[in-house]
Write a structure and sequence with these properties.
- The chain is mainly beta and 1302 residues long.
- The chain contains five helices and 95 strands.
- The strands form 25 sheets. Strands 58, 61, 62, 65, 66, 68, 71 and 72 form an eight-stranded mixed beta sheet that branches. Strands 2-10-9-5-6 form a five-stranded mixed beta sheet, with no helix packed on it. A five-stranded mixed beta sheet has the order 12-19-18-14-15, with no helix packed on it.
- The protein is flat, with a radius of gyration of 69 Å.
- It starts with a helix and ends in a 38-residue tail after the last strand.
């Protein structure tokens, strides 16, 4: 039935269409479109009578019916359905878009499906263009006629581009390039193309600098902006022929003329290198080029040697097979540079002399002409020879006979001239005519006279006449010596000046006069006689090695002396007086005509003469001068020790831990000693802390095992000796371990032993204490073998406790050890509020504590309801025993998970061998705490009260405390929460001075608060603050030290201030009275008392003579500082009134105690010192004690100033090293010639030093030169000063050390 209906409906529709229905169709069909890559394309599609749905299809892929294409955001369908426009818009086109697109309309009703297709073509320009291997605008070097292939590639274009080549601006024929097109896969269905074009070039020099350009043409590129790249050719080829400018061959130039030769070459790549050569030797290779042009300019000044020289220029580059050349030959004219003459310069009358004249090289050759004394000499010949340096050399000879007639010289001129250059040179030659000089004579020394060595001697030799003047020479014993020659018009003088010495004795001084006319010198001679002392003195010792008991001879030999020297012996500045025959003398021949001297001194050698110095003096009587030589005797002996005690052994004491030093003073001769140390007769081995340095032993840290007897054995080549010293090491005590607990029966004697190790150690170093007090009752102490034994007789339980053994020997820390004395007794329970009972919550843990004292050890047993508790057998009951001290034990019963039936009393049994005791402890349910007990005040200050208490039972829970306090007389109450919770004391702060307070406290836990303590405490804060307490203690110190109280000082200062004020009023009254008197005087009258000043000034007396210095008190007081604790009392003195008889001194203030050791440099301790009382041993009073001490000394020094006045300052101490201009006396020489200082009861002997002897005494720091002592200056004029200058003479006198004048 339904099928028939459908057939009927279809027939009706078909019939309707046939009767005039219009179907859908394309009014605008899509057309083929081309678009550049990255551009925008629009494919049009317009449908009329639209019935179905429109979509686009790309290469068979439907893009959908939506305006936005899903997955391809670059695609969109634009238009509207009402107008039937469905255009496809594609932006940023890529090669993926190169495809066939179809606009499709779906069927709808009677509308059939329709479709129309179009092609979208995407074109892409080349991505790049390059000439392979050559960047754009690069230069390619290529040899001439060498084939060059250029390949141009355009990359990844669609469709393939066209490549065109250009040479410069000229397009190359299309047949020349070879083109290749290659497909390039691009990952899609559309292909890109690479296009290659290759050309081959055979470059010539004309291609140099030419450009070759490759151009890619493509429809995607604008024709006016094609893609191109280019390169430039640099064709290498040889340069052109060189050319020389600046000189033409055959041309002549003159010597000294500036010549400039220019070589040029054109063409060539690279440009030509130009080099100049002179006679095949390179002379210049500096050239410059521009483009393909090169130039080398060679500049020089023409010389003789340039005549005929060939100058060549060579041009070449890398393409040259051989250099190209151009050359010229120079012709140079030059006159001779010089004319020289040679031959004899002197001669006698009648001699024939030949003179030669020679010219330097010349071109053309020079001619020579002669002139003698102004007259030409004709008929001379010229000889010419070619010079290797160019040109010719001309020479000529002239013979001359010296005429008679008294002439002194002849002048010969030689002319050399170059005719072509008109240049002439002249050379002059002079000939001296010779005559002999007169006989010489000597002045300055008289024959057979004597001269002292060391004097300056001058002698002159004089010769007259002769031509030339004579040459004078001096000789000493045929050896020429220098001299000073002076020439005058007709004579010459030669002088010699010298310091006479011993070599001049019997020396022959000769003067010789010569000139060219003499054949044999003319001679004059003098023989000298000289007095001289010996140069040196030598002392010989026989035998060379001296030992005590021998006989020694000291022989003194002096060198030559004229007259012979006199020898004498000295020791310690005193002439040696020996027995007859002990000193012998002799003389002998010496150098330079003098005599030697010898003397022998015989000595008996003893050990005590070691180190004594003997001096031999050689004295020349004529000169009054001496030469000395010293010999120090060297006596060899075995070592000896200095500083040894007359009896017993030397002892060194050191404290352990400190540095120790043991040293011996040993000496011997030879002084090279070897040492060997031993300790207690055993060899001693040094260690890191024990350093042995010869005769010294240094211990960096001394130990007690270092104690003992140290021996030092000293040895030299003469034998050995030894010495001993005992090292005593003191060290702090150390108590040896021993019995810490002593247990005895009651009424039995108890013995406590304390053994210690210390040095020193004796009974007095031990002490026994119990509870801080000495043990006396029923006790005795004994000492033996380093142990102290305390015996307590009939010991009782009262004697139980801890005894302290104290060992103190004053070295290091005090040693202490405790010994506990126990008396055997049965246990005794210790019950305190906190453990008297216990409490716990149901299901929680409970702790019961049982504490007892007894000896020996106590054991505990717990029971409940008469039933013993077996603890530690299960986890429910656990017990633990702790030993609190030697006498006290504690047992703790822990009950886990408390149940209801666990509450109730528990019995604790304490047992030992002496018996047992029982104690009941009740376990309760947790509750409020009990109040604290035994609350008391433990400390009070002016603003705080500190209390302490014993905790009560805490109710089985943690508890805390609250303190309440109030000021008596008020109802205001304050509370303090105690922190931390377990504290048993608390300070209450912020209280009022001297006020009574009432204090209560109670405990609390989480279940509530306890009752307050039974009895509140009352306490009053201190009535004085710390500053008031400080002042009070200060007053006590003042009274204790006998000084004035501060109240008295303040009263005195106030009284002084009132007096000053009164004085000022009096002065003002006097001034007003005087002024009124002046006004009442007649104007013509002279004023009386004109010597009085209108101003009142106060003067201080001089510190030296108590006279007014003229400096006003006001200026002085501005410079002074006072410590008078108030205004200074001033006394006004009217000018012209009677001079004050005394001075006024400020109270002297000495420095505080901490600076008492400091004094001004150069000052001495004042003799006005006083023993002070010891400062109160309270650390808080240190500053007050200093202040009090200053006040006391202030008043004391003030009293000195009032009673004794002010002493003038003594002169300053003298520096013995200073130099004073007024010194007149020389000190005795140091060393053996020094005299001991006079005074102090010392005696001395007058030492007579040897005559004319200067002694230098050597010390370890070098020679000591005698120095003049300073002259003690007179007392300097004293000036107003505030400080005394100490001086030895002032000792025993009162001096003001820091006083100030008012």
């Amino acid at each position: 039935m339904s099928s028939a209906v459908y057939v009927l409906l279809f027939a009706l529709l078909t019939a309707g269409g046939c009767s005039g229905l219009v179907t859908q169709s394309f009014s605008v069909s899509p057309n083929n479109v081309s678009v550049h890559e990255g551009g925008e394309a629009l494919l049009q599609c317009q449908v009329s009578n639209l019935g179905g749905q429109v979509q686009w299809v790309k290469d068979g892929l439907a893009l959908g019916y939506d305006a936005s294409i899903a997955g391809i955001p670059r695609y969109s369908m634009i238009g509207d359905r009402s107008s039937g426009v469905f255009n496809l818009r594609i932006i940023n086109a890529s090669l993926d878009d190169d495809a066939e697109f179809e606009c499709q309309v779906s069927p709808e009703g009677l509308h059939k499906a329709i479709r129309a297709a179009a092609r979208l073509t995407v074109i892409a320009p080349p991505t790049g263009l390059e000439i392979v291997g050559h960047p754009t605008n690069s230069k390619i070097e290529v040899n001439e006629n060498q084939a060059l292939t250029l390949e141009c590639v355009a990359y990844k274009a669609k469709p393939p581009p066209t490549i065109v080549w250009y040479r410069g601006d000229t397009k190359l024929p299309d047949k020349d390039p070879k083109v290749t097109v290659t497909e390039v896969p691009d990952g899609g269905h559309v292909k890109r193309f690479d296009v290659k074009s290759r050309i081959t070039v055979n470059p010539t020099k004309s291609d140099d600098y030419s450009e070759y350009k490759c151009e890619a043409r493509h429809e995607a590129l604008a024709r006016e902006y094609p893609l191109n790249t280019k390169v430039q050719l640099s064709v290498l080829y040889p340069p052109g022929e060189p050319h020389i400018d600046g000189y033409t061959e055959g041309e002549t130039i003159r010597r000294g003329q500036h010549v400039e030769l220019t070589c040029r070459s054109r063409g060539g790549n690279p440009p030509a290198q130009l080099v100049w050569y002179r006679n095949d030797v390179q002379v210049n290779m500096m050239y410059h080029s521009k483009g393909r042009y090169s130039e080398n300019i060679y500049k020089f000044v023409a010389k003789d040697s340039d005549n005929g020289a060939r100058f060549r220029c060579e041009a070449s580059n890398v393409r040259s097979v051989k250099p190209l050349k151009a050359e010229v030959q120079l012709t140079v004219y030059f006159a001779p540079a010089q004319v020289t003459t040679s031959g004899p310069t002197e001669g006698k009358v009648g001699d024939t002399l030949q003179i030669t004249c020679t010219t330097a090289n010349s071109n053309p050759p020079a001619e020579i002409k002669w002139v003698v004394n102004g007259k030409k000499r004709p008929n001379t010949t010229n000889n010419r020879t070619e010079s290797p340096e160019g040109g010719w050399v001309t020479s000529s000879n002239l013979n001359i006979t010296i005429p008679a007639g008294g002439q002194k010289s002849l002048t010969v001129l030689c002319h050399g001239s170059n005719q072509h250059l008109s240049e002439n040179l002249v050379s002059t030659h002079s000939i001296n005519i010779l005559y002999p000089p007169g006989e010489p004579f000597i002045t300055g020394y008289v024959s057979d006279s004597s001269v002292a060595a060391g004097t300056t001697q001058k002698m002159a030799c004089i010769s007259s006449g002769g031509h030339p003047l004579a040459t004078l020479s001096w000789y000493k014993n045929d050896k020429k010596i220098p001299c000073i020659t002076k020439e005058m018009d007709k004579s010459v003088t030669a002088e010699i000046t010298f310091v006479v010495n011993q070599t001049d004795n019997e020396a022959r001084y000769r003067c010789e006069a010569t000139n060219s006319a003499t054949e044999v010198p003319l001679i004059e001679t003098r023989i000298m006689h000289v007095y001289y002392k010996p140069e040196h003195v030598v002392i010989r010792q026989d035998p060379p090695k001296l030992k005590p008991g021998q006989k020694a001879n000291l022989t003194c030999d002096s060198s030559a002396s004229n007259p012979p020297a006199t020898l004498s012996w000295w020791r310690a500045g005193i002439p040696v007086s020996a027995e007859p025959g002990a000193i012998t003398f002799s003389n002998g021949p010496g150098l330079y005509g003098g005599k030697t001297s010898s003397s022998t001194l015989s000595l008996n050698v003893e050990a005590d003469v070691d180190g004594l110095t003997y001096i031999c003096q050689a004295h020349n009587a004529e000169l009054g001068e001496s030469v000395n030589q010293a010999l120090t005797l060297n006596i060899v002996y075995k070592p000896v020790f200095d500083g040894e005690p007359s009896s017993g052994m030397r002892q060194v004491t050191v404290i352990e831990g400190e540095q120790g030093h043991i040293s011996f003073s040993a000496r011997g001769n030879p002084p090279e000693l070897t040492f060997m140390w031993s300790l207690d007769n055993k060899p001693y081995k040094p260690s890191a802390r024990a350093l042995v340095e010869g005769a010294s032993l240094n211990l960096s840290t001394v130990r007690r095992e270092d104690a003992g007897v140290y021996s030092l054995h000293a040895t030299n080549s003469e034998g050995s000796s030894s010495s001993k010293v005992q090292l005593v090491v003191k060290y702090s005590p150390k108590i040896a371990p021993g019995l810490s607990v002593v247990m005895v029966e009651e009424s039995e004697n108890a013995t406590l032993t304390c053994k210690a190790d210390a040095e020193p150690l004796s009974q007095e170093h031990f002490s026994w204490k119990r509870g801080g007090a000495n043990v006396k009752e029923r006790a005795s102490v004994s000492f033996a073998n380093g142990s102290s034994v305390l015996k307590i007789h009939a010991a009782t339980k009262k004697d139980m406790g801890q005894y302290e053994c104290i060992v103190n020997n004053g070295i290091g820390a005090v040693a202490k050890a405790n010994v506990t004395l126990l008396i055997k007794h049965k246990p005794e329970f210790v019950v305190t509020p906190d453990i008297a009972k216990s409490a716990a919550k149901d299901g929680k843990e409970a702790r019961l504590v049982c504490r007892a004292k007894g000896a020996p050890q106590i054991n505990f047993q717990w029971s409940k309801n008469k039933k013993q508790i077996n603890a530690n057998t299960s986890e429910r009951y656990i017990t633990a025993v702790n030993k609190l001290d030697e006498l006290t034990y504690e047992s703790t019963l822990v009950i886990k998970s408390v149940k209801y039936n666990d509450f109730g009393p528990y019995e604790c049994t304490a047992r030992n061998i002496m018996g047992f005791e029982n104690h009941n402890i009740k376990l309760e349910v947790t509750s409020k705490p009990d109040p604290p007990v035994s609350m008391s005040v433990v400390n009070i200050t002016h603003n705080s009260i500190t209390i302490a208490w014993v905790p009560g039972f805490n109710g089985g829970l943690p508890q805390s405390y609250i303190i309440q306090y109030r000021r008596i007389g008020t109802e205001t109450k304050n509370q303090v929460n105690v922190i931390p919770l377990n504290s048993t004391s608390q300070e209450i702060t912020g209280l009022m001075l001297g006020t009574e307070y009432e204090i209560l406290m109670w405990a609390k836990n989480e279940l509530g608060e306890s009752q307050p303590v039974r009895n509140a405490v009352r306490s009053t804060t201190l009535r004085e603050s710390p500053s008031a307490e400080h002042e009070r203690r200060l007053q006590e110190v003042l009274r204790e030290q006998g000084a004035l109280p501060r109240l008295v000082i303040t009263a005195v200062a106030s009284t002084a201030a009132v007096l000053v004020f009164v004085n000022i009023l009096v002065v003002l009254c006097v001034l007003r009275h005087r002024q009124s008197k002046k006004q009442r005087k007649p104007s013509g009258a002279s004023e009386q008392g004109s010597n009085k000043s209108g101003n009142i000034e106060m003067y201080a007396p001089s510190s030296f003579n108590e006279t007014v210095t003229g400096e006003t008190l006001s200026s002085i007081s501005e410079k002074s500082e006072t410590y008078s604790n108030g205004e200074a009392v001033e006394e006004f003195i009217e000018q012209g009134s009677k001079r004050a008889a005394s001075t006024y001194l400020i109270d002297q203030v000495e420095p505080p105690a901490q600076y008492a050791g400091y004094m001004h440099p150069g000052s001495r301790q004042s003799t006005l010192t006083r023993q002070h009382k010891p400062v109160v041993p309270n650390q808080e009073l240190d500053q007050e004690a200093v202040y009090v001490d200053s006040l006391r000394r202030n008043a004391y020094n003030h009293s000195i100033g009032e009673h004794k006045g002010y002493h003038p300052a003594p002169p300053p101490e003298l520096d013995p090293s200073a130099y004073y201009p007024q010194e007149r006396y020389y000190p005795p020489p140091p060393g053996p010639f020094s005299r001991p200082a006079l005074g102090n009861g010392l005696t001395h002997r007058h030492v007579v030093p040897p005559p004319d002897v200067t002694m230098l005494v050597h010390t370890a720091n070098g020679p000591v030169v005698p120095r003049m002592p300073p002259k003690v200056p007179s007392t300097p004029t004293s000036h107003l000063t505030t400080f005394a200058q100490p001086h030895p003479a002032a000792e025993g006198r009162s001096l003001e050390t820091e006083g100030h004048l008012v």
